[in-house]
C-alpha cells in the first residue's frame, strides 16, 4: 500500500510524457491551468468570480473607451484619476513625450541626489563633513574634496550630455507635424498637441505619431504598408488593413469630420503583437485586432496617405510602455568588489579604534605629564581618544578607493569598443559587426561555465531549401532545380494544399508592390518564416505559380492554367496550435479545408481511415534522420450546411471582447478534424560555418553547452551529432532514463533521512559511476514531469475546505513537503545534467528555456550565457547572466534584448576565449594592483602613528595625498586594464584551457585580496622604516641634518611613487610605447608638480595652503636621500622579481609555457588543418520538427475581403520563362530516369550530365 507521502510525490504512471508534444503555453501558469479544470470546481468558483467582477467592473478586458471627434467625451468624471489628495487628472495621456530627466533648475540637485545614493560617494561626503570639524581633522578639506569633485564632475558631465541628447530628441519628435481634423477640416498640428480620439492624416515616409486605428488609405481596400524597424528591428514591410465599412464610408474629409464611432478596447499595455477591441458605429459592432492598428514608431511606406483615429497617445502607446527598465545585470567581480570594499571599511574602523585607544593610553602616560604639549583645552584622555578615532577615519580614508568605480567604468567602456572594432567578428555577408550593447559585463565573459544555445538560426543558418517530399506514401528527392513531378495528380494536390496556406502568408519584397511588377519580371516573395519561403519557391519551380490575391480570392497558375480559389476563412497559426488551415471554395463549388502543420498535431486530427499514414510516417522518419525539417499536409471536404453552421460560430468568436484567442481556438478545433493525409515535405537547414570547431574549442575550455530548442528530439539529436556536440562514443540518456535515476536517488535520500533524523537529504555521490562520455537528451514534456512543473490532473473532486486550525496546519505542512520535494527533485536533476558533457532539451517552450537557465544559476551558482536569434529566445537571454543575440533570419528581437550581438555563432569563441579572457585578466590585475597601491600608500600613516603619539598626523604632504590617486598612479594601471594581454589572440584560441582561470576565480578572490593587503602592508613598512632609519643619524653635505618631518615626507612619497610605478611595470605582460610612457611619465609628472608646489612663488600666493616651501629642492639634492630611495625600491621589488622568476622556472603556469614558446607555436598554427566533421547519418530513424514562424500569421488581415494589389502582371509575362523551362524538361526526361522507391532507399532524380 502506498503511503500518503508517496502518493503525493510519485510520478503518475498513467500519464507518461509524450516526446512529440510541446508542453502547455508559456502564457499559462500552473495555477491558471488548474483553474481551467472542468467540473464542480469550476462551478464552485464561478459564483465568487461573478461576485468579484460585479464589485470591480474595471476587470473587464475592454475598459478603454475612445470616441472620435468628441473631446468633451473625455471630461466625464469616470475618466478621471486621483493623482494627489483631491487633485484629479484625465487617465488619457497627452501625446507629448518626455524622456529627459533634468531642466536647468533641477539638474544640480537631482544629479547630486542620484550620485550620493551610491555608497562610495556618500561615504566620502560624510568624510568631507567630518574634515570641516577642526577638533577631529588633521587633514585639509581639499584632500577629499578634489577627488570627490573630480568623480562627481565626470559623472555629472556624462549624465548632462546624455540628457541634452534626450531633450533634443524629445523636442524634435514633439514638434513634428501631421494633419488633424479641427473645425471640420484637416489642419497641420504638432505631435504634442494630438489627443486621444483625434482623426489624423499621415503621408508616405512619415512616422506614425500615436497608436491609431486605421480607417482608410489611398491604396485599394485601404491597405497600408508600414516599416517596424523602430519597434522590433525588422526592416521588411508589414501590412495593415482597415475595416471594410470604414474603407467604404470614410474616404472624404467631410465623412471623417462627421465620424462618431466608439472604440472599446484593452487598457494600454506593452504587447506589440496583440490588440483586442470593438468598433461601435451605426448600430453595428466590428471586431478590431492588431492588424488594424498602426503603432507609434512605425513608418509609412509605399502608401500615399492614410487616415486613422488615435487610440493611445504619448506615454500610453505600446512603444513607450516597452521602454521600461530592463533587468540590471551585475558581474561576479562587481559583487566581490563591493564585499571587499565593505571589508576595507570594517578594517578601517577597527584600525581607527585601535589607534584611538593607543592615543588614549598615550595621553594618560605621556601627554598629561608633558607641560610643553598643553593646548589650553582640559579634555579627558578618553574624549581625546574619541576625537582621534574620527581623525583616523579621515586620515585612513584612502584605504577606500574613491576613484575605483570610475576607473572600472573607463576600462569596461574601452573593452566594449575593442569588441565593436574587432574585424574578425565582422560578418560581411550581412554587413553585421559585433556589438557590445552593455559596458558592464565584459570581464564576466571570461568566467562562463554554461552556454545555453538555441538551434534554429543559431547553430543552423535558418536558410531553408526544399529537398524532399512524400506524396501518397512515395518519397521523392529533388536533385535538379525541378523534376517532372508536376505530371502527378497527387503532386498537384499536395502542392496546392501547401501553396494555398503558405502563399497566403507571402508578401512582396519592399521593392515591388505586386508579384511580377519588378523590372526583371521575376516573382519575389517575403515569407513569415524561411520555411514557407522555401515551399513557395519549390511550388513555383514545379509549375504552380502564385500570381495575385485579394482578401477573398487567390489566383494560381497550375501548369500554365490560371485558376482562382475563393478564400472563405483562414485559421491562423499560433505557438499553441502549431498548424495553419485555410477554407477555400473551388471552381466547381466544392468547399475544402487545407491544413499544414507539425506531424504531432496533424496525426491527432486525421481520419481513422488514412491508407498512407504508415508510409508517410516512415518517410518522416527517414527525412528526420537526415536532419531535415518536416511538415505534414492534409485536407478535408466540407458541406455547405456544415460550413454555414461553423461560420456563425467563427464570426461570434471574432467579435468576442474578452478571451478572443481562446474562443477562436475552440472554434478552429471543431472544423480541423477527420483530415485526409496528403503527404509531407522536407526542408534542409544547414549548419552555420565553424559551428563544430567552435563547440569543440568551447568544450576544451571546460564550458558545458546545452542546446534548448523547440524542434523534435530526433532532429535535435542529429544536429547534436553534426555539430560534434555528440560523438559515437557518447552514451545518451533520455527522459525515461533520467526519471528512473532521479526516482532511485530520491528514494535513497528518503531512506537515509528516515534512518537518521539529523541526516541531510543532500547526496554528493555521482549518478554515474563510470567515466564514460555522457549526454542528456530530454523533451519538454519529460522536463515538466521531472521538475514537477506539469499540469496536474485532479482524480477526484475535493469540495471540503479546511475549517479547523488542525486541518489548516495539515494543509500547510502538506504544501511545505511538496515544495521541499520539488526543490530536491530540481536540484537532483541539475546535478545529474551537470555530470553530462552535453545536454539537449528539445520540444521546449520559451518559458522552459528560461526555467532551465534559472535552475542552473540557482543550484550550481555558475555563470551562464544564453545565445539565440529569435523572439522565442528573448526570455532565456534575459534570464542568463549574459545574453548574446545573433542577427539572423527571425528579426532583431533577440539582438535588442541581448548584451552582446554578432552575425554568426562561430564568433562566440572569439568573444569568450579572447575578449572575455583578456577582459577578465585585465580587470583582475587592475583590481589587485589598485588595492595594493592604496594599502601601500595609506598604511604608512599607521607606522607613523607610533612616533607621533597616535595623534592622527599625516605622513605626507596634503597635496600629495590629494593627487596620488588622481595623477601620480592612475594612468599606468588604467592602461594595463585596457591593453594588457598574456598571450596573443591566436594562441588564446589554440589553447582553450587558458580560459579555466576565470571559471575558477583564480585571479581575483578573497585570497588574492588579502595577499594584496599583505603586499601593501610590507611595502608601507619598507617605505616608512628605511627612510626613518636613514634619517635617524645622518648628516647632509652642508653639515645640516635633513632629519625634519617635511624632508622625510618627501623622501617617503618619492620612494612610494617609484615603487608603485615600477611594480605595475613588473605586472605588465604586454609592453607598448603607451605603457612605458605612462610609467615614466607618471614619475616625471610627480617630480614636476612637487617642485612647483614647493616653490616660493606659490607659497607667497597661498601661504596657508602650501607650507612645504623649498622642501623638495633642498631634500632631493642630497645624494644620501637618493641612496635611501634606491635602497627602499630595491628591497620592495627584488623579492617580487625573485619570486616570479622562481615560479616561472620551477612552477610555470600554462600561459608562462605558451609565452616561452610563442614563436614556435605561431608557426605551427599556420600549418594546422581543419578537422573533419564526425556527423553520422542513417544511425536511427528519427523525425524532425517543422519550425513555424515565431510570430502570428496574417490570416485575419487577409480574410477581410479586399484586393491587396492595384493590379497584377499578365499571366503571359509571368509564364514566359516557364514555357522555355517546359521545353527543357521534355529534353531532360529523355536523358534522365526518375526512380520511385519504397523501404529504406531514397527516391532520386538522375543526375544531369
UniProtKB/TrEMBL annotation:
Protein name: Phospholipid-transporting ATPase
The P-type ATPase C-terminal domain, residue ranges: 895-1149
Gene: ATP8B1
InterPro entries assigned: ATPase_P-typ_cyto_dom_N, ATPase_P-typ_P_site, ATPase_P-typ_TM_dom_sf, ATPase_P-typ_transduc_dom_A_sf, ATPase_P-type_domA, HAD-like_sf, HAD_sf, P-type_ATPase_IV
Chain segments annotated as coiled-coil in the UniProt record: none
Top-rank taxon: Eukaryota
Active site, per annotation: 454 (4-aspartylphosphate intermediate)
Species annotation: Ficedula albicollis (Collared flycatcher)
Residues the record lists as binding ATP: 454-456, 532, 573, 596, 629, 709-711, 843, 849, 872-873
GO biological process, one term: phospholipid translocation
Residues annotated for Mg(2+) binding in this entry: 454, 456, 869, 873
Amino acid at each position: 500500500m502506498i503511503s500518503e507521502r508517496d502518493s503525493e510525490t510519485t510520478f503518475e504512471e498513467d500519464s507518461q510524457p509524450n516526446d512529440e508534444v510541446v508542453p502547455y503555453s508559456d502564457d499559462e501558469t500552473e495555477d491558471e491551468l488548474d483553474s481551467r479544470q472542468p467540473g464542480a470546481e469550476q462551478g464552485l468558483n464561478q459564483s465568487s468570480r461573478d461576485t468579484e467582477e460585479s464589485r470591480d467592473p474595471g476587470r473587464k478586458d475592454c475598459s478603454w473607451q475612445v470616441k472620435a471627434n468628441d473631446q468633451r467625451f473625455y471630461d466625464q468624471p469616470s475618466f478621471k484619476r486621483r493623482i494627489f489628495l483631491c487633485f484629479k487628472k484625465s487617465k488619457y495621456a497627452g501625446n507629448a513625450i518626455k524622456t529627459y530627466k533634468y531642466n536647468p533648475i533641477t539638474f544640480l540637485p537631482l544629479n547630486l541626489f542620484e550620485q550620493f545614493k551610491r555608497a562610495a560617494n556618500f561615504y566620502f561626503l560624510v568624510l568631507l563633513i567630518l574634515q570641516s570639524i577642526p577638533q577631529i581633522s588633521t587633514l585639509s578639506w581639499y584632500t577629499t574634496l578634489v577627488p570627490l569633485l573630480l568623480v562627481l564632475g565626470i559623472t555629472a558631465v556624462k549624465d548632462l550630455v546624455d540628457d541634452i541628447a534626450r531633450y533634443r530628441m524629445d523636442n524634435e519628435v514633439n514638434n513634428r507635424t501631421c494633419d488633424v481634423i479641427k473645425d471640420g477640416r484637416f489642419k497641420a498640428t504638432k505631435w504634442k498637441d494630438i489627443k486621444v480620439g483625434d482623426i489624423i492624416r499621415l503621408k508616405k515616409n512619415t512616422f506614425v505619431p500615436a497608436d491609431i486605428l486605421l480607417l482608410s488609405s489611398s491604396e485599394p481596400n485601404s491597405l497600408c504598408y508600414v516599416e517596424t524597424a523602430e519597434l522590433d528591428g525588422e526592416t521588411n514591410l508589414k501590412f495593415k488593413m482597415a475595416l471594410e465599412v470604414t474603407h467604404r464610408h470614410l474616404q472624404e474629409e467631410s465623412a471623417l469630420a462627421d465620424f462618431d464611432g466608439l472604440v472599446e478596447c484593452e487598457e494600454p499595455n506593452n504587447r506589440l503583437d496583440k490588440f483586442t477591441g470593438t468598433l461601435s458605429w451605426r448600430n453595428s459592432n466590428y471586431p478590431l485586432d492588431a492588424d488594424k492598428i498602426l503603432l507609434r514608431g512605425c513608418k509609412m511606406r509605399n502608401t500615399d496617405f492614410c487616415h486613422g483615429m488615435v487610440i493611445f497617445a504619448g506615454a500610453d502607446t505600446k512603444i513607450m510602455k516597452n521602454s521600461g527598465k530592463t533587468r540590471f545585470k551585475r558581474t561576479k567581480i562587481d559583487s566581490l568588489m563591493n564585499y571587499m570594499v565593505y571589508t576595507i571599511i570594517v578594517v578601517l574602523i577597527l584600525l581607527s579604534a585601535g589607534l584611538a585607544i593607543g592615543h588614549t593610553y598615550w595621553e594618560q602616560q605621556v601627554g598629561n605629564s608633558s607641560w610643553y604639549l598643553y593646548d589650553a583645552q582640559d579634555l579627558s584622555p578618553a574624549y581625546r581618544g574619541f576625537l582621534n578615532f574620527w581623525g583616523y577615519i579621515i586620515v585612513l580614508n584612502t584605504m577606500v578607493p574613491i576613484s575605483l568605480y570610475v576607473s572600472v567604468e573607463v576600462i569596461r567602456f574601452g573593452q566594449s569598443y575593442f569588441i565593436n572594432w574587432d574585424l574578425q567578428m565582422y560578418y560581411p555577408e550581412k554587413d553585421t559587426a559585433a556589438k557590445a550593447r552593455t559596458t558592464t559585463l565584459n570581464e564576466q565573459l571570461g568566467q562562463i561555465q554554461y552556454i545555453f544555445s538555441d538551434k534554429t538560426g543559431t547553430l543552423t543558418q535558418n536558410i531553408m531549401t526544399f529537398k524532399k517530399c512524400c506524396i501518397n506514401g512515395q518519397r521523392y528527392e529533388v536533385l535538379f532545380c525541378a523534376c517532372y513531378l508536376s505530371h502527378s495528380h497527387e503532386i498537384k494536390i499536395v502542392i496546392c494544399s501547401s501553396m494555398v496556406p503558405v502563399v497566403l502568408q507571402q508578401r512582396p519584397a519592399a521593392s515591388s508592390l505586386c508579384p511580377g511588377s519588378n523590372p526583371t519580371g521575376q516573382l519575389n516573395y517575403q515569407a513569415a518564416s524561411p520555411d514557407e519561403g522555401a515551399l513557395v519557391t519549390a511550388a513555383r519551380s514545379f509549375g504552380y505559380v502564385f500570381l495575385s490575391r485579394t482578401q477573398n480570392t487567390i489566383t494560381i497558375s497550375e501548369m500554365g492554367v490560371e485558376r482562382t480559389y475563393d478564400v472563405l476563412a483562414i485559421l491562423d497559426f499560433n505557438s499553441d496550435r502549431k498548424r495553419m488551415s485555410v477554407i477555400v471554395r473551388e471552381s466547381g463549388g466544392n468547399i475544402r479545408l487545407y491544413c499544414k502543420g507539425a506531424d504531432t498535431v496533424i496525426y491527432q486530427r486525421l481520419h481513422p481511415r488514412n491508407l498512407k499514414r504508415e508510409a508517410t510516417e516512415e518517410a518522416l522518419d527517414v527525412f528526420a534522420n537526415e536532419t531535415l525539417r518536416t511538415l505534414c499536409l492534409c485536407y478535408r471536404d466540407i458541406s455547405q450546411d456544415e460550413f454555414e453552421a461553423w461560420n456563425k460560430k467563427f464570426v461570434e468568436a471574432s467579435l468576442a471582447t474578452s478571451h478572443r484567442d481562446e474562443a477562436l481556438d475552440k472554434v478552429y478545433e471543431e472544423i480541423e478534424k477527420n483530415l485526409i493525409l496528403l503527404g509531407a515535405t522536407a526542408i534542409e537547414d544547414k549548419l552555420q560555418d565553424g559551428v563544430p570547431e567552435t563547440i569543440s574549442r568551447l568544450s576544451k575550455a571546460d564550458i558545458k553547452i546545452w542546446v534548448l530548442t523547440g524542434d523534435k528530439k530526433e532532429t535535435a539529436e542529429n544536429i547534436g551529432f553534426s555539430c560534434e556536440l555528440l560523438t559515437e562514443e557518447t552514451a545518451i540518456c533520455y527522459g525515461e532514463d533520467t526519471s528512473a535515476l532521479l526516482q532511485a536517488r530520491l528514494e535513497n535520500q528518503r531512506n537515509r533521512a528516515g534512518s537518521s533524523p539529523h541526516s541531510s537529504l543532500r547526496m554528493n555521490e555521482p549518478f554515474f559511476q563510470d567515466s564514460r562520455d555522457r549526454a542528456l537528451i530530454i523533451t519538454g514534456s519529460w522536463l515538466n514531469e521531472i521538475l514537477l512543473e506539469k499540469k496536474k490532473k485532479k482524480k477526484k473532486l475535493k469540495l471540503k475546505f479546511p475549517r479547523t486550525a488542525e486541518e489548516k496546519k495539515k494543509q500547510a505542512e502538506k504544501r511545505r513537503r511538496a515544495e521541499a520535494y520539488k526543490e530536491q527533485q530540481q536540484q537532483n536533476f541539475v546535478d545529474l545534467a551537470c555530470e553530462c558533457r552535453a545536454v539537449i532539451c528539445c520540444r521546449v517552450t520559451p518559458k522552459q528555456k528560461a526555467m532551465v537557465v534559472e535552475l542552473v544559476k540557482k543550484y550550481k551558482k555558475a555563470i551562464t550565457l544564453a545565445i539565440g536569434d529569435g523572439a522565442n529566445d528573448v526570455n532565456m537571454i534575459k534570464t542568463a547572466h549574459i545574453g548574446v543575440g545573433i542577427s539572423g533570419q527571425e528579426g532583431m528581437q533577440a539582438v535588442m534584448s541581448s548584451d552582446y550581438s554578432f552575425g554568426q555563432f562561430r564568433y562566440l569563441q572569439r568573444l569568450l576565449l579572447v575578449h572575455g579572457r583578456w577582459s577578465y585578466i585585465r580587470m583582475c590585475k587592475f583590481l589587485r594592483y589598485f588595492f595594493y597601491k592604496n594599502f601601500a600608500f595609506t598604511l604608512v600613516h599607521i607606522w607613523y602613528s607610533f612616533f607621533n603619539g597616535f595623534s592622527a598626523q599625516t605622513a605626507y604632504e596634503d597635496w600629495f595625498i590629494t593627487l596620488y590617486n588622481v595623477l601620480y598612479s592612475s594612468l599606468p594601471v588604467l592602461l594595463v586594464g585596457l591593453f594588457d594581454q598574456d598571450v596573443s589572440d591566436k594562441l588564446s584560441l589554440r589553447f582553450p584551457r587558458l580560459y579555466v582561470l576565470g571559471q575558477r576565480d583564480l585571479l581575483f578572490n578573497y585570497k588574492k585580496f588579502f595577499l594584496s593587503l599583505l603586499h601593501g602592508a610590507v611595502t608601507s613598512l619598507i617605505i616608512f622604516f628605511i627612510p626613518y632609519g636613514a634619517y635617524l643619524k645622518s648628516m647632509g653635505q652642508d653639515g645640516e641634518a635633513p632629519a625634519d618631518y617635511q624632508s622625510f615626507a618627501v623622501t617617503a612619497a618619492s620612494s612610494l611613487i617609484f615603487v608603485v610605478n615600477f611594480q605595475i611595470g613588473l605586472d605588465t605582460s604586454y609592453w607598448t610605447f603607451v605603457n612605458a610612457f605612462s610609467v615614466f611619465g607618471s614619475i616625471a609628472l610627480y617630480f614636476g608638480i612637487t617642485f612647483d608646489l614647493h616653490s616660493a612663488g606659490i607659497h607667497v600666493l597661498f601661504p596657508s595652503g602650501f607650507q612645504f616651501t623649498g622642501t623638495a629642492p633642498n631634500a632631493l639634492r642630497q645624494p644620501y636621500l637618493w641612496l635611501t630611495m634606491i635602497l627602499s625600491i630595491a628591497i620592495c621589488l627584488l623579492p617580487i622579481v625573485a619570486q616570479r622568476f622562481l615560479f616561472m622556472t620551477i612552477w610555470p603556469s600554462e600561459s608562462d609555457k605558451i609565452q616561452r614558446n610563442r614563436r614556435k607555436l605561431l608557426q605551427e598554427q599556420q600549418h594546422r588543418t581543419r578537422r573533419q566533421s564526425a556527423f553520422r547519418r542513417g544511425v536511427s530513424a528519427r523525425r524532425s520538427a517543422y519550425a513555424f514562424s515565431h510570430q502570428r500569421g496574417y490570416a485575419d488581415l487577409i480574410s477581410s475581403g479586399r484586393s491587396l494589389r492595384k493590379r497584377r502582371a499578365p499571366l503571359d509575362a509571368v509564364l514566359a520563362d516557364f514555357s522555355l523551362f517546359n521545353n527543357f524538361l521534355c529534353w531532360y526526361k529523355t536523358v534522365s530516369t526518375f526512380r520511385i522507391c519504397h523501404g529504406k532507399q531514397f527516391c532520386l532524380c538522375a543526375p544531369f550530365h
